[in-house]
From TrEMBL:
<protein>
    <submittedName>
        <fullName>Carbohydrate ABC transporter substrate-binding protein</fullName>
    </submittedName>
</protein>
<keyword id="KW-0813">Transport</keyword>
<dbReference type="InterPro" id="IPR006059">
    <property type="entry name" value="SBP"/>
</dbReference>
<dbReference type="InterPro" id="IPR050490">
    <property type="entry name" value="Bact_solute-bd_prot1"/>
</dbReference>
<comment type="similarity">
    <text>Belongs to the bacterial solute-binding protein 1 family.</text>
</comment>
<dbReference type="Pfam" id="PF01547">
    <property type="entry name" value="SBP_bac_1"/>
</dbReference>
Length: 454
């Protein structure tokens, strides 16, 4: 179901945006039938149309739900539309059940664009070009974000939140006191610095993979980052779409490079045992030990900030430093960024209230209140960065806004049996001692054959 070319180089994106302005929606034509979806006109559900109510189902709850609801309060007041949001931690199962039973929400907010694929096949979800100004949306988004939700030539999800995963964190005060550099030109420079720390009796990296049934996902992100910087976005896309095998030598090169950090002698606090037993949310805490950093750096997504101590978060710009994971010398000669994100999809294309809310939700005007609360990044490069609460968050957002290319988290785009199955488990075996070749061969063997359950 998925097609290739999951991201676009920024320069190419700008060129396409200019071409679309003069020639119409070449990428996602209005009014055409979505291939594979059996679409004719607009999809519909059992929700009443024109009743001033929009039913939304998503996965985020708690403080995030409060921030989301604060971000749509002004829209509800001005439009007179009541947005009823329901949070469900088992979103993937619930959305399938509701669609299958004829009880689809008006809008589903998907944690990964790949989750849309089966609903596109069923003709249950609406292509965005039929209710959004595709060209205008494409011009404001970080290049590539629409392509991540493209199936058989059309886009079915509108980005409403971005995650940036190419971030390296460090304890700013201790770092500056030690006189460490605040940027690295290449991965090799970063590894030389890491080895220098080891030679001085220090531990460079903090790392924890434990995440209950999802243990191992941190390792998949690490490999994805290395594939991106060693082989580049085009090869990354080929890997995601299985146009090259998982056991390809370029993936082996990337995994070996990641192993210099994850398996390197003295590189990670506590070694492999700690990596597998330390909850990912606690991995970075030793950076802020009162006696001094027990480890100095953590590579993790922007969401890691929410796991750091409250006293660090309260004065983030004073306590936390960040830099972008650097390019690989001899690898891709660009500045790519690994990203993730949430996508809103419509199950009721007949309802004008749904269309109006989607126009707001997918715009660069959405999210100011959520941004101010922290923990949320807009996928729009035109978003007003003054809404972010601190310079650290602005710097992280700029890693995507200013990137030469963005690539979406590979495991979220791969078949589920691999991306949230064997990819996790085989990375655990790898960190526990399996060789690069054993790991990649096992992953290649686990890839579902054509027609098999994904």
């Amino acid at each position: 179901m998925r097609t290739g070319n999951r991201r676009r180089v920024a320069a190419l994106g700008l060129g396409l945006a200019a071409a679309l302005t003069t020639t119409g929606c070449l990428q996602s034509p209005v009014g055409g039938q979505g291939e594979g979806a059996g679409l004719s006109g607009f999809v519909d559900n059992a929700q009443a149309d024109g009743d001033g109510k929009v039913v939304v189902l998503g996965a985020f709850g708690g403080v995030e739900q409060e921030s989301f609801e604060a971000s749509i309060a002004a829209f509800e007041e001005e439009s007179g539309i009541d947005v009823e949001y329901t949070a469900d931690q088992d979103f993937t199962t619930t959305i399938k059940t509701r669609v299958g039973s004829g009880d689809s929400p008006d809008i589903g907010i998907f944690p990964q664009p790949g989750g849309l694929a089966e609903f596109v096949d069923e003709g249950a979800v609406q292509p965005i070009d039929t209710f959004l100004d595709y060209d205008a949306l494409d011009r404001t988004l970080v290049p590539g974000f629409l392509d991540f939700a493209r199936f058989e030539g059309r886009v079915y999800g509108a980005p409403m939140r971005m995650a940036v995963k190419s971030v390296v964190y460090y304890p700013k005060k201790a770092w500056e006191q030690a006189g460490h550099p605040t940027e690295f030109e290449t991965y090799q420079d970063l590894m030389k610095f890491s080895q220098d720390l080891v030679d001085q009796g220090e531990t460079p990296w903090c790392m924890g993979w434990e995440s209950a049934q999802a243990t191992g996902w941190v390792g998949t992100d690490g490999l994805e980052q290395m594939v991106l910087v060693t082989a580049g976005p085009d090869v990354y896309d080929q890997w995601v779409d299985h146009q090259i095998p998982f056991s390809d030598p370029v993936i082996a090169t990337a995994l070996d490079a990641y192993g210099e950090i994850a398996k390197g002698e003295g590189m990670v606090l506590g070694g492999k045992r700690a990596i597998l037993n330390t909850p990912f949310a606690e991995a970075g805490l030793p950076m802020f030990d009162q006696a001094g950093p027990k480890c100095w750096m953590e590579r993790q997504g922007n969401f890691a900030i929410g796991f750091y101590p409250a006293e660090i978060q309260d004065v983030l710009d004073e306590e936390l430093g960040v830099f972008k994971f650097p390019r690989f010398e001899g690898g891709y000669d660009g500045d790519p960024t690994l990203v993730g994100g949430d996508y809103a999809a419509v199950f009721n294309g007949n309802d004008e209230d749904v269309q109006e809310f989607m126009q707001f939700l997918s715009s660069d005007q959405f999210g100011a209140e959520w941004a101010q609360a922290g923990g949320w990044l807009s996928p729009h490069a035109t978003f007003d960065g003054s809404h972010y609460p601190d310079d650290v968050t602005r710097a992280i957002a700029d890693m995507a806004y200013q990137a030469s290319a963005t690539s979406y988290d590979a495991s979220d785009l791969m078949p589920k049996s691999v991306g949230s199955g064997t990819f996790w488990t085989e990375m655990v075996k790898w960190i526990d001692g399996a060789s690069t070749q054993e790991t990649l061969d096992a992953l290649e063997e686990s890839w579902p054959a054509e027609g098999e359950e994904q």
